[in-house]
Design goal:
Ribosomal Protein S8, Chain: A, domain 1, 434 residues, 4 domains, 14 helices, 65% helix
């Protein structure tokens, strides 16, 4: 038993020695690791110090701090990116503009090629052909009473000269010239030519012209395939036949713009009916004689609104000279087509328009006086005939009126040469034998 216990004690002692030895080894290893950690920490601090020194050296050489250098780099990269983006955007925009210009030219060329119209400049004279020169004497009448009655009733200067088999009707208003021409035709055909008959025929002819104006408007709307126009708009379209713009017949110009606009709208996939309607009506503001102070585009837009036209049509009419903002897609189309029609070589003549405007201002000036019934500017504006109501203006007042109108013309208007103002006061005494 003692031997067994001794052996066990020796075994335990051996194990304790082993444990002590292992503990010593572990302690030594731990101390080595702790030293390594201290060394590493020291090295890390040393590296950080060296890094900071290098950064300071770089900042000293560059003259900027690290934060400033970083901001400069970011700004540089941002500016480079912006420049590249702007360059790309410019290329895209330039390409888009080039493509748009090509397409626009293509549409305009196709529109012009598909619409062929005649080009004729309106004149301010009409020729009335007669069979022989003997009729000239009958038209003049005894002491010129017939020709004076004709001129007073129509407002047209009737020139009877040596031109063989022809009488010249001169006046800036085509409606007056047409009334004079038709009235002369009826008088010559009928054979009865005297002042009373002249007034009767001129009155009937004026009524006939008004009926024809409505017929022309209706026929124009049918030809263009435009439906539902207000009767007053139809009448205005008809009156365009007897209006001109810079020498270009207004109805022909409006029909042309309507066809151009319809073709262009079809090419661009827009409302063809609205475009054609706006094209036909774009110059209706030139037809009425009232509201001369309003631009014709604004007046036309107001008329279209009054007669319940579509808002897009109204905007296209009002905006075709940029008096109002374009809000409808068809507005720039109508504007472009108006320019195309008017800009064709030989389509217009500036001198005629300014001449007609001057004569109209001359007549309006005299019409502003109370008691004035009618005014006619004749002989290319060198004479202004003023017809007054005999009940309101006496002979003495007629002389004062002529002088007053002459003075106003001198002070308010610019004109070449001189203007003769003639005030006509007619008294008629009528009695019936029973």
């Amino acid at each position: 038993k003692e031997n067994t216990l001794r052996q066990k004690e020796q075994s335990v002692n051996q194990k304790l020695e082993n444990l002590n030895r292992e503990k010593q080894e572990l302690d030594a290893t731990r101390k080595q690791l702790e030293k390594l950690v201290e060394v590493n920490e020291s090295k890390s601090e040393e590296v950080e110090q060296i890094k900071l020194q290098h950064i300071k050296q770089l900042e000293g050489i560059a003259g900027v701090t690290a934060e400033e250098a970083k901001n400069q780099l970011v700004d540089s990269l941002r500016e480079e990116a912006r420049s590249q983006a702007i360059s790309q955007i410019k290329d895209i925009v330039d390409e888009a503009k080039l493509t748009a210009t090509k397409e626009a030219k293509k549409v305009v060329i196709q529109t012009i090629q598909r619409t062929a119209t005649e080009s004729a400049i309106e004149n301010t004279v009409s020729i009335f052909n007669i069979e022989n020169d003997e009729i000239k004497g009958r038209i003049i009448g005894r002491e010129g009473r017939n020709i004076r009655a004709l001129e007073a009733a129509t407002g047209v200067e009737i020139i009877v000269d040596d031109t063989p088999e022809a009488i010249i009707l001169s006046g800036f208003d085509p409606v007056r010239r047409e009334i004079a021409r038709l009235a002369l035709h009826r008088l010559v055909t009928d054979g009865r030519i005297h002042p009373a008959r002249i007034e009767e025929v001129v009155a009937k002819t004026r009524t006939q012209i008004e009926d024809e104006i409505v017929e022309i408007g209706e026929r124009t709307a049918i030809d263009l395939g435009i439906h539902g126009l207000h009767p007053e708009l139809i009448r205005m379209v008809g009156r365009m036949r007897y209006r001109s713009s810079y020498g270009q017949n207004l109805l022909q110009h409006s029909r042309e713009v309507a066809n151009f606009a319809a073709t262009m709208a079809a090419e661009l996939g827009l409302n063809v009916k609205h475009a054609k309607r706006a094209g036909l009506l774009h110059d209706i503001g030139k037809v009425p004689d009232d509201n001369p102070e309003l631009p014709h585009a604004i007046l036309g837009m107001q008329l279209a609104e009054k007669y319940k036209e579509h808002p897009d049509v109204c905007n296209a009419i009002g905006a075709h000279h940029d008096e109002v903002e374009m809000t409808a897609m068809i507005s720039p189309i109508v504007q472009a087509c108006d320019a195309i029609s008017g800009a064709r070589p030989g389509a217009r003549r500036e001198v005629v328009e300014s001449y007609i405007k001057r004569l109209k201002e001359l007549e309006d000036l005299a019409l502003s006086y109370p008691g004035v019934e009618k005014t006619f500017a004749i002989q290319a504006g060198r004479e202004l005939r003023v017809i007054v109501e005999s009940e309101k203006i006496s002979d003495a007042q007629a002389e004062i009126l002529a002088a007053d109108i002459s003075n106003r013309i001198q002070t308010e208007m610019t004109y070449p040469g001189q203007i003769k103002v003639t005030v006509i006061r007619e008294i008629r005494s009528v009695a019936y034998a029973k």
